[in-house]
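Crash report, auto-generated. Payload:
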Amino acid sequence: MQVTVIGAGKVGKEITTRLLNEGHDLVLVDKDDARLEKIEADFDCHCIRGSGSAAKTLSSPLIKESDLLIAVTNSDEVNMIASMTAKRIGIPRTIARVRDPDYSNNLIISKEDLGIDLIINPDHSAAMEINRLLTLALPVHMEPFARGRVQLADIAVDESMTMFVNKKLMDMDLPRSMLIVAISRNGDMLIPGGSDMVLPGDVIYLLGHSDAINKVCTKVKKKRQKVHSVMILGGGRIGYYLAEKLCEQGMKVKIIERDKNRCRELAEKLPEALVLCTDGSDLEVLKREGVADIDGFVTVTGLDEENLLLALLAKQLGAKRVIAKISRPGYAPLVEQLGVDAAISPRLITAGEILRFIKGGRLLSLFLLLNEKAEVIELVVQPGSKIAGRPLFKSGLPAGTIVGAIMRGNKVIVPRGNDVIAENDRLVVFALGHNVNTIESLSGLGGI
Amino acid sequence: MNTLLVLRTLGLVLLCEATAMLPSLGIALYLREDAYPAFAISIFVTGLTGAALTRVRLTSSDVGYREGFVIATAGWFCLTLFGALPFMISGAIPGFVDSFFETMSGFTTTGATILTNIEVLPKSILFWRSLTQWLGGIGIIVLTLALIPSLKIAGMKLFRAEVPGPAKSKALPRVTQTARELYKLYIILTVIQIIVLKLLGLSWFDSTIHTFSSVATGGFSSYNASIGAFANPAVQYTIIFFMLVCGMNFALLIHAARGNMRPFWRDVELRVYLLVVLFTCLVIMLNLVATSGYKIEEAFRLSAFQSVSILTTTGYVTDNYTHWPFLSQAVILLLMFIGGCAGSTSGGIKVVRHMILFKTASRQFFRLIHPNAVIPVRLGRDVISEELVESVQAFFFIYFALLLGCTLIIASMGMEIFDALAAVIASLGNVGPGFGAVGPASNYAAIPDPGKILLSLCMLVGRLEIYTVLVVLSVRFWRA
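Recovered output after restart:
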C-alpha cells in the first residue's frame, strides 16, 4: 500500500517507521528541508517539500496515487484541509490528527463532511488510557480481546508472589486456560519455554480466558481500593482531558501547572478541579497538597525526565499509584524497574490506532506493548489459509509467536502444541518483533 | 469633551419630557382642574429649552465614555429640574426644594414623598407624579435611544451609564433594538397590569397610576395609606406579582417572551432572588402569626407584599411594618440592602453583586488552605472576570461609605441617628419608606431643606449605580 504522511514531526516519524517496517511505501511531505533531509537519510521513503494543505503539493502524481493519506502536522486546520483536499483528488482513505476538542466534538460538521475517515488525537487517547489504568480494579495492566473473553495481563513479579517467583514454568500451578506468553526481563522480551524460571523483578504477560486471568490476578494482589483523589502534574492537553474525565466520575482532582494563564484557562474550563499554579517539582508544595494520601499521581508534563523522576518521588512520598507519560520509548525499560506503576506513550497509542485502522477489518484488534518489542493481534483465520487444518506445532508460524487463545464459536480454547486450527477461528496471537505481516499472510488475510 | 453633543442630547431628553407632560395637560383640561396652566407653562418652557438645545450644530459626533457619563448624570438632573415645574407652578408642592425632592424621588423610582396629604392633590398632578416613576423605571436615556435611533452616539457607552447591574449586556445586537425591545416589554407589562387592576374593580385612574409605580418599582400611590387603601386581596396579589416580575432581569424576560426559556430557568441570579423572596416571606409570616396574632392568609399576604415591595425597592406598604415584631423589622431592613436583579427596574445593590461578593469572600477562605490555587469566581457556569470582581468590591465600599457619610450629615441636622440612617438607606437604595421618622406611616417633610437636597442626590447616585455620578464629580474626570 502506498501511504502519504504529511508532517514529519514526532508522530509523523513514528508512523513512518512503523509503516515502513510493515512493508508499505511511504511518501513524506513537510515544509522543513532540514527535517526531510534527515529522514531521507535514515529511511527509505520519498520526501516532498511543500505545504500539506496546498492543492499544488497534493496533486503531485506520487501523492495522488496513494491509498491512504495521514495528516499529522502541528496544525489541526492544515490537517483537516489536507484531508478534504485528498478526498477530492481521489485518495480513498484519510487519517487526520485533530487535537482541538472544539473541532473533533463539533456536531455540526462531522468528520465525514471533512473527508476524514479516522480522527486521531494522541493526547486524548493517552488521557483515556491513563483514566483506564487509574480506574482499573486490579493492579495489573489488562487488555481485553475477543469481545472481552480473552485478556492479556501483565504482572510485575516480586518476592512475595510465591505463585510465580523462582519457579520454572512447568512447575507452576496455573489453570489450564491461560499461558505465560512472555517475560520481560531488564528490558528484554523473551518467549519462555517450560524450563524457564521467573525471577523477581520480571514482568510476566499472561494471556488467557478472562475468568482465569481475573482469578490469578486477584490471588496475586488484593483488590485495590477505588481511586478517589488524583493529582495531575502538568496542565497540558493530556492533563486537561484526563482531569475532565476524572471529574466526570466524581473524583477529587488537583492539577499542578506552572503557567499562570494556562491555569486560569483550566480553572475556567474545569469547575470541579482544583488548579494550583506552582512548580510541581517543589517538594514542599506536593507535601502540602497532600501527595502522601493521594490515590493516583499522574505526571504529564512535556519532559520525560521530569515525569519519571516526579512520579518516583510521589511514589516514595506515599502516592498509591503513579503513572508517568513517556514520549521516548527508550526510557520504557526503566519504568518497570524503577517502580512507576505504569507509563503511557501517546505516540505509541496513536501508532497502534493507525495500524489498526490500516489493517481495517482484517485485524480485529492490535495492541502494542509499551516497549514496542511485542504486539498482540486478534484475527480471524480465513477459509483456505495455510494454517487452517494443521496442528499448531506444524503451522509454520514464525518463531517468537504464540497463539494465546482460540475462539471457536463461543468457546475459548487455550491451545497446546497439538491443537488444530480450524477455518473461521478467531486467534489472539502474541508476536515478538514485527511478525504481524507473516502471521497475517499465513492466516489468509493477504498481508500487504 | 464633546460639549455640543452633550447639549444636543440633553435637548432631545427634554423634548421627550415635554411630550410626556402632554397627557397630564389633557387630564387637567378634561377634568377642568386648576393645574392646567401649570402644565401648559411647564410644557412650553421644557419644550422650548429642549428645542433650543437640539438646534446646536454638531461639529463631530465622537462620543467617549466621558460623554456617556455626563449625559446620563446631567440628563437626569435636567429632567428633575424641569419635571419639578408643574408641582411648583401649580402650587401643589410649594417650594423648589420640596418639588425637586418629589420629582427626583419619582424619576429615580424611589417613592419617598414629602407630601403629608396626597389625596387632596389634583388628579393631573398625581398622574404626572406617577408618570415620572414610569419614565424613570427603565431609564429616560434608554427611552431616548429607543425613540431616536439617529442619535448615533455609540450605544453601549450611554446604555452602560444608565442600565442597572454590574455587567451590562445587550439582549440584542444593537443598542437601539435592545432599548426598543425593553420598552416594548415594559409597555406590555404595563398594559396587562392596568387591565387586570381595572377588572378587579379599580377605577381607570387608580389602576393606571398604581401600575405606573409598580412596574417601575417606584412606590408612589395616590392614597395616604398606599396600597393599604385597597382592601381587595386580589389587587394586592396582582401588585405583588408585577413588582416581582419587574424586579427580574429584563433581558431574561425578553428572551422568555421570544420563546427562549432556557436563559430564564438557568439564571442563577433569578433563583437566588426568588429564594430570598420565599425565605423572607416565610420568616415574616411565621413571625407575624406567632407574635402578633394575624390570621395565616393575612400574614402571608402582608409579608409577601412587604418583602417583595422592599426587595424590589418599590416601597408600597399595606401595613405599618414599624409596628411589626423586631425580627420582621430587621428582615425588612436587610432587604433594603439587597435590591432586585441586575437589568430590572429595581434599585438597591442588586442580588448579583451580593452573589459575586459572597463567592469572592468564600474564595478567600479557600485560598488560605491552598495558597497556590487558581480559583475563578463563578456564577453558575460563567466565570466572572477579576475586573468585575474588583469593581463590585469597590462598589460595596463606596456604597457603604456614602451611606455612613450621608447619615453623619443628616444626623448633624438634628435627626435621630437611626432615622437618619434609615432615610439614607431608603434614598440610596431607591426604596422610599424607611423606619422611624421616615417610616411608612410618615414622610420626609420634616427633614430640613439641605437634608432633602442631599437625599435627592443620594437617590440619583443610587439610581445611576454610584459610579456614573461619582465619576463625573471626580477631579480626574475633568482633568484628562
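Post-recovery validation: The longest helix of chain A spans residues 76-89.
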